[in-house]
Specification:
single chain; mainly alpha; 2 domains; 7 helices
């Protein structure tokens, strides 16, 4: 299963309902990313992008911009990379189901806040942030598939 080609990963039949859902998330998010990338290359400016950006920029009062700058920093690679590398040290065992739900909810909230911050701080356009979210979801799904907890000898979360 740890093949280097994306086509091989997609072509392998999933062995469990969980893997099946991860495969569908991978395919859907990769398709969204590719569709957005192609649409932006073909249709410039992207329909609705300017209107969405203007609406979000209208929310940017000085106090909101100050908060969004902090949120933008929380989503920057110099902070996220070391935090990600320290996760196995901080959590050597699998989290209990309730804690996993809280971590996922906090992650989704941070992703949406960072995407909004990047638009309001004029670093990106809305379609850029949507494509980034889709690419991140595709890569996270691929990492989940490659981790392959269904392998013999792999540890399963409690």
């Amino acid at each position: 299963m740890c093949s280097a080609s994306f086509a091989t990963v997609v072509a392998v039949a999933p062995s469990s309902p969980r893997r099946n859902s991860v495969c569908w998330i991978l395919l859907g998010s990769a398709a969204c990313f590719l569709a957005l990338a192609l649409a932006v290359m073909i249709v410039d400016p992207f329909p609705g992008d300017a209107a969405a950006r203007l609406w979000l920029l209208g929310l940017g009062s000085p106090g909101v911009v100050r908060v969004l700058r902090v949120i933008n920093y929380l989503g920057s690679w110099p902070l996220l990379l070391p935090a990600t590398l320290l996760l196995p040290v901080a959590f050597p065992a699998a989290l209990p189901p309730r804690a996993r739900v809280l971590v996922r909810a906090a992650s989704i909230l941070l992703i949406l806040l960072v995407a909004t911050a990047r638009i309001v701080l004029r670093a990106h356009w809305p379609v850029d942030t949507l494509a980034g979210i889709a690419l991140g979801l595709a890569l996270a799904s691929l990492a989940t598939l490659l981790a392959d907890p269904d392998k013999p000898g792999a540890t399963r979360p409690a």
